[in-house]
UniProtKB/TrEMBL annotation:
Highest taxon listed in the record's lineage: Bacteria
Species annotation: Candidatus Gemmiger excrementigallinarum
Keyword Cell inner membrane appears in the UniProt entry: no
Task performed by this protein: May play the central regulatory role in sporulation. It may be an element of the effector pathway responsible for the activation of sporulation genes in response to nutritional stress. Spo0A may act in concert with spo0H (a sigma factor) to control the expression of some genes that are critical to the sporulation process.
Protein name (record): Stage 0 sporulation protein A homolog
């Protein structure tokens, strides 16, 4: 599922933009979800692959909101929706993908949306995170599992020069980002790549290399069903 978010303090405009996005020929309701917020509160907790962000959010400044978001979500494709082109130089600091003038929605939105989708799809095989204060592209096929310890999430990878990374992005956020990528929340502190999961029982799980992992008894049945369904899709 591709998560698209509109953040604008004018609810009427936000609703209208959502409708325009849903009407685009490249929008697929089966694989995409679009919603809106009228302010930055809760933005960091929302799953978001593509963000349409107003620069003038009333009491908040969209550039500053984007700076804060980039600390934990460097992978989000960001399109500023604005009438203020003078902010363009600052947008480069937060890796803005496009500037979309509110008066040019009908003419510019279809092409910008198509281009943004191409970037989102290209990033699906990697997870963009901030690790040790630096942006890192984590290759998903190599990511075995993630362990949460306090504020830190430890990523364990298969092979390569960097087989252990640490990020402050929460496990809940990571779970949302990886929900469609074959990852399973085995336990409150563990998220595992099912490609590396060998056995899953109520007493515990074991990876293909023999690494044991704990299992939540509360979610065991649902996780078992998801794991078996995933394995079935790999065989077909």
């Amino acid at each position: 599922m591709l998560h698209i978010l509109v953040c604008d303090d004018e609810e009427t405009f936000a609703r209208a933009l959502v409708r325009k996005i849903e009407a685009l020929p490249d929008f697929s309701p089966r694989s995409m979800r679009v919603r809106y917020l009228t302010g930055p509160a809760g933005l960091a907790e929302e799953p978001c692959d593509l963000l349409f962000l107003d620069i003038d959010l009333g009491a908040a400044n969209g550039i500053e909101v984007a700076r804060a978001l980039r600390r934990t979500r460097p992978d989000t494709v960001l399109i500023f929706v604005t009438n203020y082109k003078e902010y363009a130089p600052e947008g480069y600091e937060v890796n803005a993908f496009r500037y979309l003038a509110k008066g040019e929605l009908d003419s510019k939105l279809p092409a910008y949306f198509e281009d943004a989708l191409a970037v989102c799809c290209a990033r699906r095989e990697t997870l963009e995170l901030v690790c040790g204060g630096e942006p890192v592209s984590v290759p998903l096929p190599s990511l075995r599992y993630i362990e949460s310890r306090g504020r830190d999430q430890h990523l364990y990878l298969q092979g390569g020069p960097r087989d252990h990374l640490v990020t402050h992005t929460t496990l809940t956020q990571l779970e949302s980002m990886l929900a469609e990528q074959g990852f399973l929340r085995l336990h409150k502190s563990y998220l595992v790549n099912m490609a590396y999961l060998d056995t899953l029982q109520s007493t515990g799980a074991r990876l293909t290399d023999g690494t044991p992992l704990p299992v939540s008894t509360r979610s065991y049945r649902a996780n078992k069903q998801r794991f078996l369904a995933w394995k079935g899709r790999q065989i077909c």
